[in-house]
Design a protein that fits this description.
The protein is mainly α. Helix content is 71%, strand content 4%. It contains ten helices and two strands, in the order ββαααααααααα. It has a two-stranded antiparallel ribbon.
Length: 226
């Protein structure tokens, strides 16, 4: 037997003396064993801590994130977002554009007002699809009637220019005014721009019609439009 000292932890111990070779390898072996024992202790502590963390309720932020993830899974909104992304892609071709328009139409027919507005604007511009003022007025009017502020602004612009609908500055003012009441700044600018072109009687009538429309909308139940 021979006294030894571990080169890793300076621990003293007694072990058989196997000569010079044993003198070199003995401390190393014991040091390795001591290090493995230390790692096992640390690993056990980590496992206990992990078990404790697993039993701890998830923070409120995680719950909120899960709620948002569930809310985003909306088929109509998914069609709208995918179509909009495809249309904004500069590398799109006619096939991709046609598929995007089909997605938009499906979402619009399901009641998604954002899809209605985008579809109406596409029909009005005629970019990537045949220009059709009647369909532009149909979809923009549907979005405006559903309470979408952007739809109101775009529908007012059709009335201001007489595109797809009869030229009517009073109705244009009404739609701009209603959008402005919903804090749409484009509606504010368009309303103030057209107001200076109306006569005193026309402006008074347009404001009265705006108030009536807003009060009528407020008395109606929620429609669940997007």
């Amino acid at each position: 037997m021979h006294p030894w000292r571990c080169l890793a932890c300076s621990h003293r111990f007694v072990a058989p003396d196997h000569g010079s070779g044993g003198r070199r390898s003995g401390p190393l072996v014991v040091g390795v064993l001591a290090a493995l024992a230390l790692l096992a202790i640390i690993g056990g502590s980590v496992m206990v801590a992990s078990d404790d963390d697993a039993s701890t309720p998830a923070p409120a932020a995680a719950t909120a994130a899960e709620t948002v993830a569930v809310a985003v899974v909306d088929p109509l909104d998914a069609h709208f977002r995918a179509a909009r992304a495809a249309l904004l892609d500069s590398a799109r071709d006619s096939k991709i554009t046609a598929e995007a328009v089909a997605r938009l139409r499906q979402a619009a027919e399901g009641g998604h007002t954002g899809a209605m507005v985008l579809l109406g604007k596409l029909y009005r511009s005629g970019v990537g699809m045949p220009q059709n003022y009647a369909l532009a007025a149909r979809w923009l009017g549907a979005a405006a009637e559903a309470g979408d502020p952007e739809g109101m602004v775009e529908y007012g612009r059709l009335h201001r220019s007489g595109i797809g609908v009869a030229l009517d500055a009073v109705k244009a003012y009404v739609w701009f005014n209603r959008a402005a009441a919903l804090l749409n700044m484009d509606g504010v600018q368009e309303r103030d721009s057209i107001a200076v072109k109306l006569s005193e009687d026309e402006l008074r009538r347009a404001q009265a019609l705006s108030l009536e429309a807003i009060e009528a909308t407020a008395s109606q139940p929620e429609t669940g439009s997007r």
